[in-house]
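Hey, quick one: can you model this chain's 3D structure?
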Amino acid sequence: MLTRSVYARRFCHTRLCPLPFGKALPFRQHPQIRRLRLMFRISKDSPVYYLTSVAHNRLPVFRTARLKDLICKALDEARTSANLLIFAYVIMPDHVHALIGSDKEPSDVLRYVNGISGRRTINFLREAGYESSLLKLRHATGLRKHKYSLWNHHPNLKLITTEKVLIEKANYIHMNPVRAGLVERAEDYRWSSIRCWLGKPLEDEPLRIDVDQIYWHKS
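Sure thing. Here's the predicted structure for all 219 residues.
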């Protein structure tokens, strides 16, 4: 697990490489040349959002690498569209955790993150012909109308106001695949920000993160 001092030694002098997403349209790539912005200071006035989004009825929608990659690209699109910062994440088979920095209201962050990822996933399932999965995500909206919903209707979003709690939540997020028995070492799970926090990102990381944008107070 990482502490703030360990993080500072391993990460602060490491530059993350942007992802070569290629022609993954219609996803909008996170621009490699970023506009100058102030560092994010974690406080009660500027909390980090700890988001947990669970698939409808715990359906393991993201079992395949292709669907996990799709969610990573959807998170990147949400980041670009809403000017968000993504500090940590993990994509599990039936849920997603993310630590997000933003000056937007929590409801707006949810609208961008869950809205974009939900639409991208439903569209993919339709185009790929996964009718059985779509059927499980369908719910009635009226007498003869149905629509699909990827996420449970009560997403869990908590406010983090200190660096200590942020690091605790990041460690919790990164250990999810180990607790679930998917890998023995957290850094071996591809769809997680653990390697970026350790300062050892892959050349083809599924999602680049913005933890270098945090202003860390001196201990």
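One thing worth noting: The helical segments are 4-11, 65-82, 106-128, 131-136, 163-179, 194-197.
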